Amino acid sequence: MATEQQIRENLSQYRDPLLKEDLVEAKALKNIELSDGEARISIKLGFPLGQYKQQLEQDLTDFLTKLDDSLSYKLDISWRVDAHVHPAKVQAMPNVKNIIAVASGKGGVGKSTTSVNLALALSALGANVGILDADIYGPSMPIMLGTQGKNPETLDKKSIMPIESLGLQSMSIGYLVKPEQAMVWRGPMASGALQQLINDTQWKDLDYLIIDLPPGTGDIQLTMAQKIPVTASVVVTTPQDIALADARKAVTMFNKVSVPVLGVVENMATHTCSNCGHEEHIFGQGGGDALAKEIGVELLGSLPLSLNIREQTDAGEPTVVKEPESEVTQRYLDIAQRMAAKLSLESKDFKVSFPSISIENT
Ligand SMILES: Nc1ncnc2c1ncn2[C@@H]1O[C@H](COP(=O)(O)OP(=O)(O)OP(=O)(O)O)[C@@H](O)[C@H]1O
Fold first, then answer.
1. Is any ligand 1 atom within 6 A of the Cβ of residue 93?
2. Based on the domain organization, do 235 and 280 belong to the same domain?
3. 309 lines ligand 1 (CB under 6 A)
4. Which residues bind ATP (predicted)?
5. Cβ of 138 below 6 Å from ligand 1
6. Does ipTM top 0.90?
7. CA-to-CA distance for 268 and 305, rounded, in angstroms?
8. Terminus of the chain with fewer CB atoms < 10 Å: N or C?
């Protein structure tokens, strides 16, 4: 007769492909109940599951049945995103469980396009997501989300409400000032404006806030990574060597301020012919993979150079919403899920129950 302990042991032999560890080790196993030849197993994961829930249910049932077919298995799989803060950053942001900064070593690699599609992908998986356009000098979020000309409401003359569209909450300096106005701001003023934008926005119950950082690894980026309670980061790169060298700088910057790097996303890795759909590695194969290995981070995934991505995102309907069934959307979903799964394991010993904000009077 099988015991609870045996089922736990069998379960611990299953390595989850997203977490890259077993579910017992990942503290996802919540309960096992045995009665009348049936094992009821409840599992709770720390990231949005989307379609993965059905797949995991099937894979686990098959796996457990193979090891012991004297029982039938009933799986109850659920998820909830936990709030994580880096141990060094004591103060979390109200209503925001996790902040993910998206960076690139240099401009024009498609960081904003990637940020917005990943934010939409996380939302499609079931999470509550916000996006903050931190590119003071070249805000692109209003165009990408089709929210140009919108003005955020203020409640009490201090806090501002995010703009909601396509299921995302968003905030951008582009909603508040004319582009020429911000262009003349110097470094400290730009950092100050940004910080105000971050502190004064009334986000509503976010699982993830994606911050689209300005390109580069200078003072603004460093200040932000230090002053904002960033939980983790993602680096976007293109396969060209020069971009790879710059991407390395971005990873080094996050290491310096002890922000975990969830991985690298390789953008414009291949070219998809808009006539025949043929995919070619125009910059050579495996750049992102090599970089990831060299600096010890994961390659979360690659996106092709595709006319659709450019046209859809630049027209305010990013690919993930415009073509939810497309192969490109599937890639964004896979990357988003890998990213969220990895984040669920970060500083798991430092989990805080949400909300937990400490206010000190000095
Ligand atoms: N995978 C892709 N395929 C085709 N075009 C892309 C892809 N990713 C981004 N682009 C296009 O490249 C241009 C630059 O992209 P984006 O603004 O996202 O880059 P960025 O790195 O955020 O730039 P910046 O450094 O100026 O903030 C945009 O016109 C965008 O539509």
1. no
2. yes
3. yes
4. 105-112
5. yes
6. yes
7. 4
8. C
pLDDT tens for each residue of 226-269 = 778 889 999 998 887 666 788 888 888 888 888 899 999 999 88
Tens digit of pLDDT for each residue in 267-299?
988 777 777 777 777 666 677 777 788 878 899
Six-digit token pair at 359?
Answer: 């206010």
Whether residues 42 and 184 fall in one domain: no
Domain boundary among 79, 106, 125: 79
Residues 64 and 155 both lie in one domain: no
216 is in an annotated binding site: no
The residue range of the domain holding 100 is 96-350
Same domain flag for 52 and 117: no
- For residues 327 and 281, state if they share a domain: yes
Task: For residues 212 and 104, give the distance between their C-alpha atoms in angstroms, rounded to a whole number.
Answer: 10
61-95 pLDDT, tens digit per residue, is: 999 999 999 999 999 999 999 998 665 554 567 89
Domain-located, residue 34: yes
Name the residue at shortest CA distance from atom 8 of ligand 1: 110
The number of folded domains in the chain is 2
Q: Token pair for residue 213?
A: 């950082």
How far apart, in whole angstroms, are the C-alpha atoms of residue 173 and residue 197?
Answer: 8
Cα atoms in the 13 Å half-sphere on the side-chain side of 117: 31
**267: Cβ below 6 Å to ligand 1?**
yes
Half-sphere exposure of 145 (CA within 13 A, CB side): 31
In a domain, 242, yes or no: yes
355 inside domain: no
**265 labelled binding-site residue:** no
